[in-house]
Design brief:
107 residues, alpha+beta, five-stranded antiparallel β-sheet, globular
Length: 107
């Protein structure tokens, strides 16, 4: 696998194979205002992103096809309702658990 160097202020989210959040780093709180306990068990796309009109979300494409998605321009929805443009990188797991790691990079 290639090396990955996240930008300063990047927040990381870990999802299960269904796209539900199972962990969120401190950077996610700093970007969104959501604490990990507020996000656990929620669908990643519904919890954090504004709809972008695409038929399939970048997270579901990464999970279904097992492909990395880099530099996806999305709109993040914060706890207070503010919308922030971000870039997101999606890394599917290549093991039997089949989860997803998502890096949220401030815009």
């Amino acid at each position: 696998m290639d090396d990955y160097y996240p930008a300063p202020g990047t927040g990381f989210v870990v999802c299960d194979q269904g796209g539900r959040i199972i962990a969120a780093g401190q950077g996610v709180f700093e970007l969104t205002g959501f604490r990990e306990r507020d996000l656990l068990g929620r669908d990643l796309t519904e919890a954090l992103f504004e709809p972008n009109g695409e038929e399939q979300s970048a997270a579901s494409v990464a999970l279904e096809w097992g492909v990395r998605r880099f530099g996806q321009e999305l709109t993040l929805r914060t706890r207070s309702g503010v919308r922030k443009p971000i870039r997101a990188d999606f890394f599917p797991a290549y093991d039997e658990d089949g989860g997803l790691l998502v890096a949220l990079v401030p815009g």
